[in-house]
Amino acid sequence: MRMKRTFLQSLSVDSNMAYELYDLDDNPKPLNPNMIRGIRFALLCFLGIVMAGAVSILAIGIWTLEAEYGNKQISEMINAKLYEVDSYMLIIGGAAIMIVSIIGLCGVMKEYRCLVGLHLGLLAFVSVMLFVAGVLGYVLVSQLENKVRDRMESAVVNYYGVNVETDSDNRVITKAWDKVQQNFECCGVYGNEGSFNSWYIYQRSQWFTQGHSNGSHVPESCCGTRNNINECTGRTNATEGSPPLSKPPISGDPSTWGYTLYTKGCFDVLDPYMHRTGIVIGTTAIVVGIFMLVELVLSVCLYRTLPEKL
After folding, report:
1. 213, 286, 230, 217: which is closest to 60 by C-alpha?
2. Coiled-coil region(s) at which residues (predicted)?
3. Would 207 be classed as within a structural domain?
4. Do 175 and 260 belong together in one domain?
5. In the 8-state DSSP scheme, what is residue 289?
């Protein structure tokens, strides 16, 4: 015979002392059927919302990874995997949320307590991972000014164009920089034609100082057209006082150079895209995570009302 724990709670009614007996059995008392139906309906609604959010997260993860200015490209440029990892977390998280939502949907529709319980456990784990991805998204934004620019500068100075035939990492970095400089019409890291950290940074890089440049002062990817490419890269003399043979600051009108040398740093060009990517990742992950927390609470409520089925 099962022992039931009971206690007496003192209640004061109209100045007279009365006592009411409370049942604290481990199994909760049945709820009102209308309340149970309301919980099921609300849970189904949130399951649908979270499912739609999972599709959005999966799409955003793929977009931020594969876009031409996406996390994969940035990771290759700065020789760091943090950006790429965040996109992969979104892809895995989106797929996992879809699976968890399907399990929860089956459990709610069939009223299987074991499926709802499995959904609860998986939902708690995925929610944590999603919040981590969201926080990472905002961290990426906050680190733009103090870390990413430094990593970009280090990549250009130490790895760009150095032993690309034998060093696969340097080859990936070099190709990434060439692609970005051509697509976004930029050169170097930051600043403009008068900066030592835009086009002129290549002249203090190992690519230039160790003789890997074959006489070029800037890469060909910093030039707008193939016309006058030797003058643009500095292999031959160009207009006196013009880059890349002359040091900053540069005087004169760029239209008189006779060639197109990109002089704006790539960080300055990519900065808006990286900000947008970080904010999109962080906001989406956290918003969907909030809906998942509500879903978690509703799942717990429903789980406690369902009988165990053999």
Report:
1. 286
2. none
3. yes
4. yes
5. H
**The model's pTM:** 0.68
Instruction: Mark whether 179 and 239 lie in a shared domain.
Output: yes
Which structural domain, as residue segments, surrounds residue 101? Answer: 34-136+291-305
| Structure-token pair, residue 46 | 């949130």
Tokens of 118: 């499995």
Kind plus residue range of the DSSP H or E element containing 160 = none
Give yes or no: residues 122 and 192 share one domain: no
Q: d(Cα 36, Cα 263) in Å, to the nearest integer?
A: 66
220 secondary structure, DSSP code: G
The torsion region of residue 200 among left (phi > 0), alpha (psi -120 to 50) and beta comes to alpha
**Do 157 and 263 fall within a single domain?**
yes
**Domain tally for the chain?**
2
Whether 40 and 110 map to the same domain: the answer is: yes
| Local confidence pLDDT in tens for the 310 residues of the chain | 344 443 333 333 443 333 333 343 444 445 577 777 888 888 889 899 989 989 998 898 888 777 656 667 777 777 666 667 777 878 888 898 899 889 888 888 887 888 888 888 888 888 887 777 777 767 767 666 667 888 889 999 999 999 989 998 899 899 989 988 998 899 999 998 888 999 999 999 999 999 898 889 999 999 987 778 888 888 876 666 678 887 887 766 666 566 788 989 999 988 888 778 778 878 888 888 888 888 888 888 888 877 665 4
User: Which residues, 6+ apart, have CB-to-CB distance to 37 below 8 Å?
Assistant: none
**Residue 12 within a domain:** no
Q: Are residue 126 and residue 175 in the same domain, yes or no?
A: no
The two structure tokens encoding residue 280: 């999109």
Taking the C-alpha atoms of residue 107 and residue 43, their distance in angstroms, rounded to an integer, is 11
Which residue matches tokens 């604290």? 24
Cα Rg, the chain, nearest whole Å: 31
* 218, 234 Cβ separation under 8 angstroms: yes
| Residue 263 maps to a domain | yes
